[in-house]
Design a protein that fits this description.
Blueprint: H1 31-35, H2 40-68, H3 78-81, H4 83-94, E1 110-120, E2 126-139, H5 144-165, H6 176-201
Helix pairs in contact: 2-5, 4-5, 4-6, 5-6
Length: about 210
Amino acid sequence: MNDSNTPEKKPEEIQETAESPSAEELPELDATELMLHGNLAAQIRYSMIKGLAEALDEKAQLLIEAESNFEPQEGETFAEIALPEIEAMAQCLTDEWIDFSKIRYWESCQTAEVEWEEFKDENGEVKRMPYTKALEEVKDGNRLLANLEQTRNWLEQVHLLHEQKGMGWVSPHGCPEDGQHAYEARRICIEKLNQSIDSIRSNFDI
């Protein structure tokens, strides 16, 4: 992990083999799971967060792909066309069923990578042991934080459109009162997403 409060960890060797594997044969390991080696409670927690991140990314990727293939017609924007899907995703992420303030930064993106240390055992055979090394530049990883930010960005685009087109824009009857209600609800949703993002970005607890 890239935070100075996050220690690098070299756990005990998981398995020794008679033949040292080549680089191509080395198993793919999750750096965060490796750092949590030996802490079962933290491993279970992280697995649950990864499951949440995977479910979110599955839906987000549909919108991301749709946006990449979007061809605007008559001045329409992607945010305008995908408004129901964007608002549904944002609503789900701001409901009180999950407290994002409890999610740590290093659980929501990739802050470390796995490297392998070579050594010889008492019989002279070459062994490899995995360890984690902090990344200089954080990667998306499980994309939990990235998709929260993407959803927030989409919602802000919708909000700007609403301001430009007038309060009656989202009302099926062009009613400004209905539009104002939707506008305020969306503003609160954006605030909640920003709070979640800021909370995660500032949570470096171990």
